[in-house]
């Protein structure tokens, strides 16, 4: 099936007309950067109050209706109108339907001109839908894509294949997350991401949100990454972004220190770490210290892999499986300051 025929088929499956590729006059604006591999960098239009946004489940079957009700309420609080994917509550084993059904939900929203953004649920399975997506259609109609955890595979694949700036973040369930997400996605701001300090007895202290410099300095480059486990699972595939000159950020949940070590070793042996200009380790939630006297600490593992690179690096940024988290624009240019533990987004990530 040729690409236009495939898109006609997908449009028909979604009950929509296929309008063809946009003409030069109607094509969305693009911002081109010097990219050695892959398409030019593309930014989606910003979201506005009243916009309809799709909720898809490209991974694990959903059984908790309360959590999705909360997610929809969180989006409504931003002035957005959530629309559930047709197969959101489908089930095939531990997946939300077949790989093709889960991909079809994404493509229906991509092809629907009334849908302006797409939020993806996590779990496991997003990598399995990657071969079933129409990347030409996604590039022709750039929209805001948001997700994290298992959605790292989906976001990475879309960015690699289309050049679209996509967003590592959750549903805006907390005020903190909502404010940062609204600034990026709706206000087209370029915020400075800095962990907030706590105030105790009139003094500024750092407790829950402490950071630590692994190697000092500043670095500028496109920010890429996501969940460490999922990112390493797509190494060696056509869906891994090019990390040449990039700022790599990673986070994880419920992992032993030796597994973090193993995954960073994989990134090192595959050549990813040797390409990057800066490194940010977010949170490793529910990652207990290793058992026994011979175990390394997480800090030692990070230093083993990152210190020899002599690049600006820090840990503790509010990225990961936490209730208050930053939303990061994958592919966008940022500057990190490892001494101050900040990430400065250098230009708006949406139009």
List keywords for this structure.
single chain; 351 residues; alpha/beta; Glucose Oxidase, domain 1; 8-stranded mixed sheet; 6-stranded mixed sheet; 16 strands
Q: What is the gist of this entry?
A:
Helices cover 29% and strands 21% of the residues. By secondary structure, the chain is α/β, with parallel strands linked by helices. It folds into two domains: 3-22 and 36-185, Rossmann fold (3-Layer(aba) Sandwich); 192-345, Glucose Oxidase, domain 1 (3-Layer(bba) Sandwich), CATH 3.50.30.60.
Overview of this protein structure:
There is one protein chain. With 351 residues, this protein is an alpha/beta fold. It has 2 domains: 3-22 and 36-185, Rossmann fold (3-Layer(aba) Sandwich); 192-345, 3-Layer(bba) Sandwich (Glucose Oxidase, domain 1), CATH 3.50.30. Helices cover 29% and strands 21% of the residues. The protein has 11 helices and 16 strands. The strands form 3 sheets. An 8-stranded mixed beta sheet has the order 6-16-15-10-11-12-13-9. A 6-stranded mixed beta sheet has the order 2-1-3-4-5-14, with helices on both faces. The longest helix is centred in the first third of the chain and has 13 residues, at 65-77. 45% of the residues are buried. Residues 1-34 have low confidence and may be disordered.
